[in-house]
Write a structure and sequence with these properties.
The protein is of the alpha/beta class. Helices cover 34% and strands 26% of the residues.
């Protein structure tokens, strides 16, 4: 059975002055697939995902979602195409609780009486939705009203992931999802990524320097060097030594 292509990128290019940050990359992401984009610092990984997620505008190339050519010019247009990004800095307001962070920038306005007229925030609705979401994806927070700054790194990452799922992301992009986490928290995030792929059939792109995590999580590995795609491998047909050799350009 032929796989359904969710995202396709053709000859994508991005320049910063005379530097070719992304130089003619072609890539496909299939339905329910997890792929990793790996490479040394400066390989073009972050620039590439920032184009897909609308942070940067491409200089040339084409992007297709479900076979339809789309124009991604900003974060809003990426979200309209069901692309959500989970960055390593998490983009949470530390003083807000989980519910406020879940609806940050997309707050729910009361639909009742004077509350609707005065555009009063519906805190009860947001809290209930946050609690249902976190329960659904297996994130336990004993005191849901606590500011997220008091939560563990794994719990905070779980809130960010949950937010991406809640707002309809069919393509999720993770930028170093286990960076700066302890071993126990790393395990929770890895299990969460597996869960949302298996439970919701979401397609996922991961950027990671952790080759062990890459080999545990993904189906296919894309290697970038100097802004170009220099190879890709199906995980079961390769090994960490080969991928590291491709990243560095040195034969093992």
């Amino acid at each position: 059975m032929e796989k359904k292509t969710i995202l396709e990128v053709k000859n994508l290019k991005k320049y910063f002055g005379g530097i070719k940050a992304v130089d003619g990359i072609n890539l496909r992401l299939y339905e329910g697939e997890i792929i990793a984009i790996v490479g040394d610092n400066g390989a073009g990984k972050s620039t590439f995902i920032k184009i897909i997620s609308g942070v940067y505008k491409k200089d040339s190339g084409e992007i297709f979602i479900n076979g339809k050519k789309v124009g991604i010019t900003d974060v809003r247009s990426a979200r309209e195409n069901e692309i959500e990004t989970v960055y390593q800095d998490q983009l949470l307001i530390q003083e807000f609780n989980a519910a406020r962070n879940l609806f940050l920038g997309r707050e729910k306005i009361s639909e009742k009486g004077i509350g609707k007229f005065l555009r009063v925030l519906d805190f009860k609705y947001m809290k209930e939705e946050a609690e249902k979401l976190l329960k659904r994806i297996g994130i336990e927070i004993r005191e849901p009203d606590s500011p997220v700054g008091y939560l563990s790194g794994g719990q905070r990452q779980g809130i960010v992931v949950g937010k991406a799922v809640y707002w309809g992301g069919r393509i999720l992009i993770f930028d170093e999802p286990t960076n700066n986490l302890g071993a126990k928290q790393e395990r929770k995030v890895i299990d969460l990524i597996k869960l949302i792929r298996d439970k919701y059939n979401i397609s996922i792109i991961i950027i990671s320097h952790n080759i062990a995590h890459v080999f545990e999580l993904v189906d296919r590995i894309i290697v970038l060097r100097n802004g170009r795609k220099i190879g890709e491998r199906i995980k079961r047909e390769t090994n960490p030594n080969e991928i590291v050799s491709m990243i560095t350009g040195l034969r093992s």
